Amino acid sequence: MKKLISGLLVLSALAINVPTVSANAENSESMQGSETTHIQQRIDLNSATVEQLISLPGVGQSKAKAIVKYREEVGPFLEVAQLTQVKGIGEKMLSKIERYVSVK
């Protein structure tokens, strides 16, 4: 009887831990895959469309339009940090998206 109970305890412990480990491994892999895609395909701030800019984390339609409007009024971006001059984009937002954009 003790062997049966200890065996069930071991199996239940494994059953509880296995889905958690599996889910974490899947999430980690999918995050790495999407991050790799963004790193390999940085969006050029000087030629990006509103639709491309919306794909950036935390950038909605209004911020994307503000980036394009800034570019049209002021001229091309000289560096990524210049994004903080766009209305609605501060240092916090810049830190979220700077690894996904470039200036060519």
UniProtKB/TrEMBL annotation:
<dbReference type="GO" id="GO:0006281">
    <property type="term" value="P:DNA repair"/>
</dbReference>
<dbReference type="GO" id="GO:0003677">
    <property type="term" value="F:DNA binding"/>
</dbReference>
<protein>
    <submittedName>
        <fullName>Helix-hairpin-helix domain-containing protein</fullName>
    </submittedName>
</protein>
<feature type="domain" description="Helix-hairpin-helix DNA-binding motif class 1">
    <location>
        <begin position="51"/>
        <end position="70"/>
    </location>
</feature>
<feature type="signal peptide">
    <location>
        <begin position="1"/>
        <end position="23"/>
    </location>
</feature>
<dbReference type="Pfam" id="PF12836">
    <property type="entry name" value="HHH_3"/>
</dbReference>
<feature type="domain" description="Helix-hairpin-helix DNA-binding motif class 1">
    <location>
        <begin position="81"/>
        <end position="100"/>
    </location>
</feature>
<keyword id="KW-0732">Signal</keyword>
<dbReference type="InterPro" id="IPR051675">
    <property type="entry name" value="Endo/Exo/Phosphatase_dom_1"/>
</dbReference>
<dbReference type="InterPro" id="IPR003583">
    <property type="entry name" value="Hlx-hairpin-Hlx_DNA-bd_motif"/>
</dbReference>
<dbReference type="InterPro" id="IPR010994">
    <property type="entry name" value="RuvA_2-like"/>
</dbReference>
<dbReference type="InterPro" id="IPR004509">
    <property type="entry name" value="Competence_ComEA_HhH"/>
</dbReference>
